[in-house]
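Team,

Forwarding the record for the chain on the shared tracking sheet. I've put the sequence and predicted structure together so nobody has to dig through attachments.
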Amino acid sequence: MADGAMTATFLAVIGGASLLAVTARRLRPVDRLPSLEGWALADRGLGPGWTWLLLGGTIFTAYTFTAVPGLAYGNGAPAFFAVPYTVIVCPLAFVLLSRLGSVARRHGYITAADFVRGRYGSSPLALVVALTGILATMPYLALQLLGIRAVLTAGGVYPRGAAGDLVLVALFAGLAVATYRHGLRAPAVISALKAVAVFVSLTAVTWLVLERFGGPGPVFDGAAERLGGPALLLSPEQQPAYATLALGSALALLMYPHVLTAGFAADGPRTLRRVSVALPAWTGLLALFGFLGVAALAAGVRAPRGGAEAAVPMLVDRLMPAPLAGLVFAAIAVGALVPAAVMSIAAATSFVRNVYVEYVHPTATPKRQVRIAKAVSLTAKVGAVAFVFGLRDQDAVNLQLLGGVWILQIFPAVAVGLFTGRLHPRALLAGWAVGMASGTYLVVREGFSSIVPLGTGAGPLEIYAGLAALLLNLTVAVGGTAALERLGVPRGADATDLPSRLTVRRRPETGANNP
């Protein structure tokens, strides 16, 4: 049960986040008429520091900081797939995000579907990209609330019953108001507090753990005894699943609308490249959270059945003085507010740009677009709260697992489209449909497990379902393109300035190759 000092620290940090949100309108103010670009992307004016804070705070969610150590607590080594996965994201962001952000800036694109519409001249393809993004984002948004509730419940900060639900609603209501008024600027300024609180609190917890156990060696030895030794190591049978899950998750992450929204807000591709180089600092943070899951196991923490994500909060409550424990819990709560705000903004922007304006009201003024986006963003948050209170936690987890598989199926249209326009939009549509259907079938068939066996016999190969579906997707897209070109089926006009096929040109001043 939380004491007064813990509660006071928790409320102080949450209050600080609220005060920062109020000042969001002062973040790079621009004297322009209201526009969707201004509300959703902060007028594309964020420099390297703010972009690093916002992008890192958006990618590394509160549920990540509870699910990874919870998985390490329950299963050992497989949990650490998140570390290579987030390492792989950095060079991908350096190449893909900077290139896509540059094209989006030149042509005024706000969403990935805008780019697809311009690249392929296909409204149906742009529509499925937008809807897939919204569909994959909504359960992810609900998981942020679940992350807050799990952490606060484990720390005794979350009251039982209706009182606890009111606390959660109050936390989210403040975020909703700030986001409604200031758009992306609100999570941008809160991300600064998130970074400070998370880095400081995690450093303190890790230092206390190492001091108590006498170093990392005894921590892993103690955890190995409780898990049974080999559980802290990957067996040869687990390695394909580990590798494909890390690769597939990295490819999927950069397709999520909230990550692209945070990237598009940067003031240029040079900023995005700098930020991509600095993102591993957040990965180190994630690795330490995974280590704390192992430490909770070594310390003999007994998490509730089916609630392994509570292991680290229980460890914090046991080891740390009340004020520092309150800081940790507040840091994770604020950590959920940043991605939740960006997710709601991204979902609303995709709806307005690629559904409302495209199919409902093509002549909507910029002011009306902003008003509709604000309403949709607020509705998304209310829907996430209703989802959390109305359904089981496992339902949100299952849908989020499917969401990762689904969002990966737009990779050919978006990421491959950055380097070649040769794929036919109708073939991409067919590939998307095959990937969505096969990926969903594989995950559901295995009882909502993202790792699925392929092949028959004594030792079938286990791989990530999203990557298997993506391979089918690409196969259909490439084969369909060849067939449609042979039949002479026309395609839409390319409105971007990207080459139609992958080429390598030479910079005259240096002689260096430049794709």
